[in-house]
Design brief:
Blueprint lengths: L7 H13 L8 E8 L2 E7 L9 H4 L3 H4 L16 H11 L8 E8 L4 E2 L6 H10 L3 E5 L5 E5 H10 L11
Parallel strand pairs: 3-5
Antiparallel strand pairs: 1-2, 1-3, 3-4, 5-6
């Protein structure tokens, strides 16, 4: 009997899970990788901007200190989202993202319990403008949810961004 080989989507989402282990957020561990032509071209995790102190170094979460609920007031967070860092890192390397896919894995720090790692509205807008095709996210039930950018665009053309049902927060 042959062992079952995992799919490419499972493979890449597993790599995003490993990337998430570098996260410096007390609330969530999120990792993202961008694939184009079956090759990893960029990675990113939740963390403070380069050369600044992250929440772990501060010993606290600023948003917790300010009693800010999950999914709100991201401008008051020390961290850059994993999706944003993956897009930024590709840019720093001069690599085009056009036609690529982004894999996003999230969990609760220390528990390795997966969460619905759907992008927030800011990250969704960046993913659309970066020219990515698919978004493959971990879910709280241990499976994956696949979105297509073209569907997001169509939904936002017919409705509005606020009508979106699958977003973080």
């Amino acid at each position: 009997m042959k062992p079952k080989r995992i799919s490419k989507d499972e493979y890449y989402l597993g790599i995003a899970e490993e990337v998430a282990r570098r996260s410096t957020c007390f609330r969530r561990s999120i990792g993202a990788i961008i694939i184009r032509d079956d090759q990893i071209i960029s990675t990113g995790y939740v963390g403070a901007p380069r050369k600044t102190k992250d929440s772990l170094e501060h010993g606290s979460c600023l948003r917790d200190k300010l009693n800010i609920p999950h999914g709100q007031r991201y401008e008051l967070c020390r961290s850059v989202h994993a999706e944003q860092n993956a897009i930024i890192n590709a840019s720093r390397a001069g690599v085009s993202l056009l036609g690529g896919d982004i894999y996003i894995h999230g969990s609760i720090p220390g528990k390795f319990q997966p969460i619905n790692a759907y992008p927030c509205f800011i990250c969704k807008k960046m993913i659309i403008n970066a020219g990515l095709n698919r978004i493959i996210c971990s879910t709280e039930v241990g499976k994956m949810k696949i979105f297509r950018v073209i569907d997001w665009i169509k939904e936002w053309q017919e409705g509005d961004i606020i009508d979106d049902n699958h977003h973080y927060g």
